[in-house]
């Protein structure tokens, strides 16, 4: 009898420990047979969700938040650590990209961009479009090189980073100047220059707008355009529109684009905006 009691006690303790191991910080779901599948607990909400009004965004019209990108910089003291800098919230319903600081405070509202024709890099200016007052896309014309503003239409994604590369040259006299073409060769030594850029998938206008982060103008609340990636006509025929939804770059400046109605894969573009291949 004593042996039985000892065995029963040991069995009970074992079951208690087993149950304790499962129940402590454990959650579960169910399989197709209704049996529980134990797993770690899901995330819990420690604060109330952020609303547009709480972020300082006028949401009097219908809104369609479609993308959120956090721009990080490498920690100078630890290459494996990233420090958040800004957040880019894209809303295709409001035709805007909202820039927030790490305290979720609105710092910029991007609805339009500034174009200076003679400063555009590797861009077919005649193919750039803007959203007009009646909601129709309009091809821009540049009168005598005068800077022109254009508006976003149904943007679906934004990305910021140092992924773009521009080649510059040192002459033997140490005079420093830019070249217009990324691959142009002149006398001197080539030097890579990384630019701080913002990439916006301007889906409704069938283009990707690349903005120079150093050119923000407080008066007009716009950035100057560095480049516009328009429809690759050598790859997409007249029956297919170029409708970019997401974009990122690599350390060589190549762009990787997910586009609507493109099923062959992720579109890869060179730094000059030329279509290279499908990947993924």
Question: Notable features of this structure?
Answer:
9% helix, mainly beta, 5-stranded antiparallel β-sheet, 280 residues
Please outline what is shown here:
With 280 residues, the chain is mainly beta.
Main sheet properties? 5 strands, antiparallel
Radius of gyration: 26 Å
Q: Give helix and strand order, one letter per element, not per position.
A: HEEHEEEEEEEEEEEEEEEEE
Q: State the secondary-structure class.
A: mainly beta
Cα separation of the termini: 68 Å
Number of helices: 2
Number of strands: 19
List unreliable stretches of 5+ residues. Answer: 4-24, 169-188
Average pLDDT over all residues: 77
What proportion strand? Answer: 35-45%
- Spatial strand order of the main sheet: 12-11-13-14-15
Q: Give the proportion of residues in helices.
A: under 10%
Task: Describe what you observe in this structure.
The N and C termini lie far apart (68 Å). It contains 2 helices and 19 strands. The longest helix has 22 residues, at 2-23. It is globular, with a radius of gyration of 26 Å. The protein is mainly β. Strand 1 and strand 2 form a beta hairpin. The protein has a 5-stranded antiparallel β-sheet, with no helix packed on it. A 4-stranded antiparallel β-sheet has the order 3-4-5-6, with no helix packed on it. The chain has helices at 2-23, 52-55; strands at 26-30, 36-40, 65-75, 78-91, 96-100, 106-110, 112-115, 129-131, 137-139, 148-151, 157-170, 176-178, 189-202, 207-212, 225-229, 244-249, 255-259, 266-269, 275-279.
């Amino acid at each position: 009898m004593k042996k039985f009691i000892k065995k029963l006690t040991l069995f009970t303790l074992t079951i208690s420990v087993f149950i304790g191991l499962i129940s402590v910080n454990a959650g579960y779901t169910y399989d197709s047979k209704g049996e529980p599948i134990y797993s770690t607990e899901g995330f819990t909400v420690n604060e109330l969700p952020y609303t547009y009004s709480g972020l300082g965004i006028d949401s009097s019209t219908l809104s369609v938040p479609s993308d959120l990108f956090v721009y990080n910089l490498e920690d100078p003291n630890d290459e494996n650590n990233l420090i958040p800098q800004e957040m880019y919230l894209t809303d295709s319903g409001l035709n805007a990209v909202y820039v927030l600081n790490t305290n979720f405070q609105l710092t910029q509202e991007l609805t339009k961009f500034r174009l200076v024709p003679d400063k555009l890099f590797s861009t077919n200016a005649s193919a750039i479009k803007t959203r007009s007052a009646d909601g129709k896309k309009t091809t821009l014309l540049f009168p005598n090189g005068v800077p022109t503003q254009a508006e976003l239409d149904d943007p679906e994604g934004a990305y910021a980073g140092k992924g773009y590369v521009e080649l510059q040259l040192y002459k033997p006299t140490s005079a420093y100047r830019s070249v217009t073409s990324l691959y142009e060769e002149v006398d001197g030594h080539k030097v890579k220059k990384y630019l701080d850029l913002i990439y916006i998938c301007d889906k409704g206008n069938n283009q990707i707008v690349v903005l120079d982060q150093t050119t923000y103008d407080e008066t007009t609340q716009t950035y100057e355009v560095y480049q516009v990636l328009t429809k690759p006509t050598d790859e997409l025929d007249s029956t297919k529109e170029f409708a970019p939804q997401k974009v990122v770059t690599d350390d060589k400046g190549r762009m990787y684009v997910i586009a609507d109605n493109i099923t062959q894969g992720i579109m890869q573009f060179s730094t000059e905006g030329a279509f290279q291949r499908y990947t993924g």
